[in-house]
Design a protein that fits this description.
The structure holds 2 protein chains of 2 kinds.
Chain A: H1 2-19, H2 38-49, E1 55-63, E2 66-73, E3 75-80, E4 83-88, E5 102-104, E6 107-111, E7 117-121, E8 126-127, E9 130-131, H3 136-161, H4 169-188, H5 193-215, H6 226-243, H7 246-253, H8 260-306, H9 309-349
Antiparallel strand pairs in A: 1-2, 3-4, 3-9, 5-6, 6-7, 7-8
Helix pairs in contact in A: 1-3, 1-5, 1-6, 2-8, 3-5, 4-5, 4-9, 5-9, 6-8, 6-9, 8-9
Chain B: H1 5-33, H2 38-62
Classes of the chains: A alpha+beta, B mainly alpha.
Chain lengths: 357, 63
């Protein structure tokens, strides 16, 4: 039971940190040209698809010269001027699907093209706010959390009555064992690996599941947001830093076995290295998943650019092959994140006898 | 004449590609020579490839 608690704690932490959407200053784009440019339109569609949004857009269709959008809103939670405002994102749109302002007490909220919420008061002065909304990404993180709790909770309970797993456990048990025997044990060491197993398993299955959600229709690519991968990398950094033994710190500040002037030069480099390691974890996961989706979307876009049977067939075939490759990349990225985390943990708890060198 | 930044990005990606290719090739040779170490070689190969890949992505994001 203790493991389940740790798993839920870590998942909640990931959830909380990744809720904090990074705010960027976005300027409104002016649409001047009236003639249709398919390339531009598709690029805008692609960029919007890769973004984290405040509603769940299912599809759109044309009815009597009007475009009808089918979507459902997600809750917006904003902390502004010491008050917590909770409302649905549909409040930002009127019945004609035009953007409108929404007023709570004396705070006026508005959403812009880039799905960022802006606030101002009655006098028109901008207010700073903290956006804690349940966006599409957060909704999928919660879904992954519940799936993990249900599947692994059930699996853990089934071992009480029967040592052989049943159902989906038969598929997952070899993966859990693989992470234990081939990732944690050789990299962290026989003595300490048990302490890190809950984190490694959680992070592997979390990344894997959310990556797979990204490939489903209507699914959101959660790891496409740098906030999510940053929170995962920060967890690795925090665990490495707080479980490290004196050998690890000795290696950073006073590298054994090298001359004294070298030790002074190496200390800042090694210290920087502790931050670069989780930073590269963050960038790797984020960039890999984003790149995969951008390529997939671009190849699908060839259909609209060629607009003939040859382009369509080619594009479909390529996109299908790439989607299969993405399935592999999903698991591979989860594996590499887990593997490198285990490697960093291993370096933190390693015990050496340097006098022999 | 000013060289666009994307040219530099492309050069870094070419370098990363050569690097990962060499890692893959060497790993293949090593695995052919010592099939009993396949698992270990694969792990080390993936780590090295992932590290180089990180540099490639860093270059692309610096654009």
């Amino acid at each position: 039971m203790n493991n389940i608690k740790t798993v839920s704690f870590i998942a909640t932490l990931i959830l909380l940190v990744s809720c904090l959407n990074f705010a960027f200053a976005g300027e409104q784009e002016l649409k001047t040209d009236t003639d249709r440019d398919i390339r531009k339109e598709y690029k805008a569609f692609k960029d919007h698809h890769l973004k984290d949004i405040h509603s769940f857009k299912l599809f759109k269709y044309k009815k009597e010269e009007k475009t009808v959008y089918v979507s459902f809103p997600l809750p917006v939670i904003i902390y502004c001027q010491g008050k917590l405002d909770v409302f649905m994102s549909s409040k930002f749109y009127n019945h004609k699907n035009k953007r409108v302002e929404f007023k709570v007490d004396d705070r006026i909220y508005k959403i812009d093209d880039h799905e960022h919420i802006k606030a101002r008061n009655n006098q028109g002065e901008p207010l700073s706010l903290l956006d804690l909304s349940i966006t599409k990404n957060v909704a999928f993180i919660i879904l992954a959390f519940f799936i993990m709790v249900v599947v692994f909770g059930k699996m853990a309970k089934s071992y009480n009555s029967n040592p052989i797993p049943s159902g989906v456990g038969r598929f997952l048990e070899p993966i859990v064992l693989y992470i234990r025997d081939d990732i944690a044990r050789p990299n962290i060491g026989e003595k300490h690996y048990k302490r890190y197993m809950s984190f490694l398993l959680t992070v592997f299955f979390f990344i894997w599941f959310v990556n797979l959600f990204g490939l489903t229709p209507f699914g959101s690519n959660v790891t496409n947001s740098i906030a999510v991968t940053a929170s995962l990398a920060i967890l690795t950094y925090v665990i490495t830093t707080f479980t490290a033994n004196k050998n690890y710190w000795g290696h950073i500040f006073w590298m054994p076995g090298v001359p004294t002037p070298m030790k002074i030069i190496l200390a800042p480099i090694e210290l920087l290295g502790t931050i670069i390691k989780p930073f590269s974890l963050m960038i790797r996961l984020y960039a890999n998943m984003t790149a995969g989706h951008v390529v997939l979307m671009s190849i699908l876009g060839l259909i609209f650019i060629f607009q003939n049977w040859l382009g369509g067939t080619l594009s479909f075939g390529l996109a299908f092959a790439l989607a299969l490759l993405e399935l592999l990349v999903c698991a591979l990225q989860a594996y590499i994140f887990t593997m490198l985390s285990a490697l960093y943990f291993g370096a933190a708890v390693e015990e050496h006898h340097h006098e022999e060198h | 004449m000013e060289i666009p930044a994307i040219v530099g990005g492309g050069l870094v990606v070419i370098g990363a590609g050569i690097g990962i290719g060499r890692i893959g090739g060497s790993a293949l040779e090593a695995m052919a020579r010592q099939p009993e170490l396949t698992g270990k070689i694969q792990t080390v190969m993936l780590i090295a490839a992932a590290l180089i890949e990180g540099i490639g992505f860093a270059a692309l994001f610096a654009l």
